[in-house]
Design a protein that fits this description.
The structure is a homodimer.
Chain A: H1 8-15, H2 21-32, H3 42-49, H4 53-62, H5 68-84, H6 102-119, H7 123-133, E1 140-143, H8 149-162, E2 166-168, H9 176-182, E3 188-193, H10 199-210, E4 214-220, E5 232-236, H11 248-265, H12 268-283
Parallel strand pairs in A: 1-2, 1-3, 3-4, 4-5
Helix pairs in contact in A: 3-4, 6-11, 7-11, 8-11
The first copy, chain A, binds a DNA duplex (30 and 30 nucleotides) through helix 2 and helix 4.
DNA sequence: ATGGCTCTGAAATTAATTTGACAGAGTTTT
DNA sequence: AAAACTCTGTCAAATTAATTTCAGAGCCAT
C-alpha cells in the first residue's frame, strides 16, 4: 500500500528510474493513455503494452501495491475522484497544477499558437518549399537573428543529415557578404526573422534575392519586411504571456519542413542516416538506447 | 450489447419498470452513487447493494449486456469519456491539407507529445527548479548534446536576459573540465540529454553532482541515465513519425522554465529587459515593430 | 388452503484472472 | 571467455470472479 496521497502517475514517475526495460514499456503505455490503459484486467492491459502479465504484476508490486487488484482499485479511485472532484476543469493541463499557475497559462497560449500556425499554412507554398529544400544538387544556406540563431543551428544539424551541401551562416553578419559571393541561382536560403526584425537580415535577403536565390522565410504573425522579397513565407504565432516571444511554433514549422523534406527524399536520406548511425557506433560518444 | 449511445444510467431509467424488487434495490444503489457503486467486482457490488450476485447478473443481462464484465466495461468507458471531456480532437489541422499529408500527421503527434509532456510535469519539482534557476547570486551553466546544443544556446540567450552570471558551455567537451573547475556548491547546471544519450554529458553531470552542483535535467520520455544524479528531471515526449526525434516539447519545457523564472524574479528582470531594449534602440540593428 | 407463478439467494459449476516457479536470453563482471 | 547476474516470458497452480442450477419463499387466483 503506497502513500495514499500519491497518484499512480506520480508513483511511476518517482520510481521510473528503478524500472526495467519492459516495465517502462508498460509504464509508458499507461502514461500515454492515462488512466484508461490501466483499467482492464491484467491480461488485457499487458497485451496492449506488449509485455507479459508477470511483468505488469511485478511492476505494480514494485510501485508498492500488494497486487494488481490493488493497483486497479487505486486507478479507479483516482478516476472517480477526478469526476466527482470540485474542479474537473478541462483547461487544466498539468493535472496537478492549479488554475492560475504559469504552466497552465503557458500551455494554453502554446496550444492556441500551434492551432493558429497550422491553420495558416498555405499547402501549395509548403509543398513547393519542401521540394526546394530537398534539391540536393544546389546549396542550402540558413541563417537566423539574435534569438533565432539557435533555430538556424538546429536546422543545420538536421538538414545536414537529410542532404549534402548545407551551410549555416554564422551569426556574425560581417561575414555574410562572403557567403553571398558564393551563392548561385538555384540555391536556397532558409531565413528566420521574428520581431524585432533585424536590418542586417533584410539586406542579406535582398541581396540574395537579386542574385536569383530562392528565399524561404520563417517569420512571426506580424510578418518581417523580408516577406516582400521572399519566395515562400511561413507565419508562426508566437505570443505568450510574458515579456518575450515563444519560438515553439517557429521550431515546429521548421521541424515540419524537415520532416516533409526527409519524407520527400526517402530513401536517399535513409542511406545518410544509416551511415551516420554506424559512424556513431564507432565513436563511443553515444550510449545505445533500448 | 445495448445501444452504444446510451449511458448505463439511461438504460436503467428506461427499463426501470420491468425490474424486479431486488433488481431495483441494486439499481437504486448504483444510481445513488453513480458510477462508483458499479466499478468493483460483481461480488462486492452485490454485497454493497445487499442483494445476491445472481440478481445483479440477471439484471445486467436484462439491460442488454452479455454479462457483468460487459456492463463493467461500459461503465468504465463512460467514466473515461467524462474525464477526457468533450473530445475536441481535430483531425485536420492545416485546414486545406488532406488527411494523410505529412503536416497533419505531424500536427497530431506534436499535440499528443505536448499533452503528454504537460501531464507529466511534477509541479513540486517544477517550482523548485524555477527557484533554483532564479538564484541570481550563483552561476547558471547550461549545456546540450549534439542535437540539443541549439537548445542550450537558446536557453543561454534568454536566461542571459533574465539574470546575470549565465554561462553556455560550448559544445567542445574537451573544455568542460575547465568549467567544472570553477563551479561551486550552489551553482546550477541546466542539462539537455535526449537519445542517443551521450557519455560525455553523463560524466560531466556526475562530476558536477560530486561538487555539489544542482543539476537540472531535461530529457526524453525514456529518461537519460543522467537522471540518477540529477536533482530535478523533466521528461519530454519527443516521438514523431520520422526517423528522428522532435524537440518541440523539449523547447516548450525550456520556455516554460524561462517564463516561470522570469515571473518569479519580476521586477528584477524587468529592469534588465528595459536596459536591453534601450541598448537595442541605440544600435539600429533592429527595426521598430508596430 | 392449494396449485401455479415469479422471484430470490445458497451452493455448485464454470470461467477468468492473478501469482509463483522456472528456464532461456541477454548483459555485465571477473 | 567464463561465470554471475538480471531480466523476461511461458507455463501451471492457486485464487478469485462470474454464471448457472435449483430449492424454497412469497404472492395471487382459484
Amino acid at each position: 500500500m503506497p502513500k495514499p496521497s500519491m497518484t499512480v502517475r506520480e508513483l511511476i514517475r518517482a520510481q521510473y528510474e528503478s524500472l526495467t526495460q519492459s516495465e517502462r514499456k508498460f509504464a509508458n503505455s499507461l502514461l500515454e493513455n492515462y488512466p484508461a490503459a490501466g483499467l482492464a484486467s491484467i491480461t488485457i492491459v499487458a497485451a496492449n503494452a506488449e509485455v507479459s502479465t508477470p511483468t505488469v504484476a511485478r511492476m505494480v508490486q514494485k510501485l508498492g501495491f500488494k497486487g494488481y487488484p490493488q493497483f486497479h482499485q487505486a486507478l479507479l479511485k483516482e478516476l472517480e475522484a477526478k469526476v466527482s472532484g470540485p474542479n474537473r476543469r478541462r483547461d487544466n493541463w498539468a493535472t496537478e497544477a492549479p488554475d492560475g499557475h504559469m504552466l497552465n497559462r503557458f500551455a494554453k497560449s502554446v496550444t492556441q499558437n500551434i492551432e493558429q500556425t497550422f491553420a495558416n499554412i498555405d499547402m501549395t507554398q509548403f509543398d513547393a518549399a519542401v521540394r526546394q529544400l530537398g534539391k540536393a544538387d544546389s546549396r542550402l544556406y540558413m541563417v537566423g537573428g539574435r534569438i533565432t540563431r539557435a533555430l538556424a543551428d538546429y536546422a543545420f544539424t538536421h538538414f545536414q543529415v537529410v542532404r549534402p551541401r548545407v551551410t549555416h551562416m554564422t551569426s556574425s553578419s560581417a561575414t555574410w557578404p562572403h557567403y553571398v559571393l558564393d551563392m548561385e541561382p538555384g540555391d536556397t536560403l532558409l531565413l528566420f526573422d521574428v520581431r524585432r526584425y533585424e536590418t542586417n537580415l533584410q539586406r542579406l535577403a535582398e541581396q540574395a534575392n537579386e542574385r536569383g536565390i530562392t528565399v524561404i522565410l520563417i517569420t512571426d504573425q506580424w510578418s518581417s519586411p523580408i516577406a516582400k522579397v521572399a519566395t515562400y513565407t511561413f507565419h508562426c504565432w508566437i505570443e505568450i504571456p510574458s515579456g518575450w516571444d515563444s519560438n515553439i511554433t517557429t521550431m515546429m514549422m521548421l521541424e515540419a519542413l524537415i520532416a516533409a523534406t526527409q519524407e520527400e527524399n526517402w530513401p536517399e536520406t535513409r542511406a545518410r542516416y544509416d551511415r551516420l548511425d554506424s559512424l556513431f557506433d564507432t565513436t563511443f560518444l553515444f550510449k545505445k538506447f533500448p
